[in-house]
Design a protein that fits this description.
By secondary structure, the chain is mainly α. It has one domain. It is built from eight helices and no strands. Helix 1 packs across helix 2, helix 1 runs parallel beside helix 4 and helix 4 packs across helix 8. It starts with 17 loop residues before the first helix and ends in an 8-residue tail after the last helix.
Length: about 240
């Protein structure tokens, strides 16, 4: 049988669409982590102008490394647990994304200003239940978060089903339980201070879909987290 000595190969196929998600996810992950670093720089800029007044102005290379590393590590956890790479693609109005970014950027300054009021900074060792500003503010925040979380759990049950609700609730419960148990155990030997970076981190962990409450949780929680690290450096729950 005759076979041509030279054969013209078929033209190469266009880039497969299966790589599109990889490229988009890489951009989304990089964009979110970059936003966290911008928030860190914003906190350092505010610190230069004594906002908050007790922020740590002097930092060294170790502080920069530790702060950046912990922000990136916690950022990756938030990307995973909030399904960010999936949910950001579901936003119909791209203007909403810009508003969430602005909310993230203004959360740090607002939280720093709020921390200037007496009684807003406390620890488990000095916290008292009664008619004082710390108790009133924390109780009000707890009630608000409880109401919003209860509503969110109802929405999850209604639209996503029981299995989704169990997975969502159990995963977030483990995160909160982890810090709660070690706070109680360590408070017997050390002065425990729940730095607001952890409060922001837990709030951000409540995000899970592309709806309003989730995006608000992620934006505000991330903003509080990076402001805490940027102003006071990364810290454990043990008061230093």
């Amino acid at each position: 049988m005759y076979q041509a000595f030279l054969e013209i190969e078929n033209p190469p196929l266009p880039a497969k669409k299966k790589y599109d998600n990889f490229i988009k996810n890489t951009i989304i992950i990089g964009g979110y982590l970059l936003l966290l670093i911008i928030g860190l720089l914003e906190a350092r800029l505010m610190c230069y102008y004594d906002l908050p007044y007790d922020c740590r102005k002097t930092i060294n290379n170790w502080n920069i490394y530790e702060n950046t590393t912990n922000i990136l590590e916690k950022g990756m956890v938030l990307i995973l647990i909030s399904n960010l790479t999936i949910n950001i693609k579901k936003i119909v109005r791209k203007l909403s994304l810009l508003l969430y970014i602005i909310l993230f950027l203004i959360t740090g300054p607002i939280f720093a200003l709020a921390g200037e009021f007496p009684g807003m900074q406390t620890s488990l060792a000095t916290f008292t239940v009664g008619f004082n500003i710390s108790f009133i503010v924390y109780l009000s925040c707890l009630i608000l978060i409880t109401v919003l979380l209860s509503y969110e759990l109802y929405i999850i049950l209604r639209y996503h089903g029981k299995l989704y609700l169990v997975c969502y609730g159990f995963s977030r419960f483990l995160i909160i339980l982890y810090y709660f148990i070690f706070s109680l155990l360590l408070s017997k030997e050390y002065n425990i201070h729940i730095h607001h970076l952890y409060i922001g981190y837990i709030i951000a962990c409540l995000a899970h879909d592309n709806k309003f409450i989730s995006w608000i949780s992620l934006s505000i929680g991330s903003g509080i987290m990076v402001q805490g690290i940027g102003s006071y450096n990364f810290a454990t729950i043990i008061q230093d």
